[in-house]
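Page 37, continued from 36.
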């Protein structure tokens, strides 16, 4: 089947218009993918922040317990008896045993970073 120049030109224009629409759609898709990538980056940062908060809480709690334990050790070396320091040792044991609960409470009561809502994108026709 042969086409006249006019028919071929019209067909070529339709093809070019289709390619132009594909390029437009591709650009929109790239913009959407970049937005999704930004959201994933923000989510990753929020998760890292929560992990850091939890780790910081555990380090703080363990540090306090270690300082109290060092004071008990010093007191024992200076002549204090274990009976005299029993209540302090009980506090150390309680703090050390509650590390998980305390770090969970700190993490639960630490405000999350604000999250930008994702706007649904309607694909082009």
């Amino acid at each position: 089947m042969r086409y006249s120049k006019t028919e071929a030109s019209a067909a070529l224009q339709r093809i070019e218009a289709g390619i132009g629409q594909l390029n437009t759609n591709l650009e929109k898709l790239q913009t959407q993918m970049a937005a999704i990538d930004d959201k994933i980056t923000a989510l990753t940062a929020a998760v890292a922040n929560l992990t850091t908060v939890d780790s910081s809480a555990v380090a703080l709690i363990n540090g306090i317990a270690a300082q109290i334990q060092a004071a008990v050790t010093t007191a024992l070396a200076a002549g204090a008896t274990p009976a005299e320091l029993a209540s302090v040792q009980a506090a150390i044991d309680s703090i050390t045993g509650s590390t998980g609960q305390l770090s969970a409470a700190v993490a639960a009561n630490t405000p999350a970073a604000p999250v930008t809502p994702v706007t649904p994108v309607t694909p082009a026709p």
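Residues 54 and 103 are 6 Å apart (CA to CA). Flag for discussion at group meeting. The radius of gyration is 33 Å.
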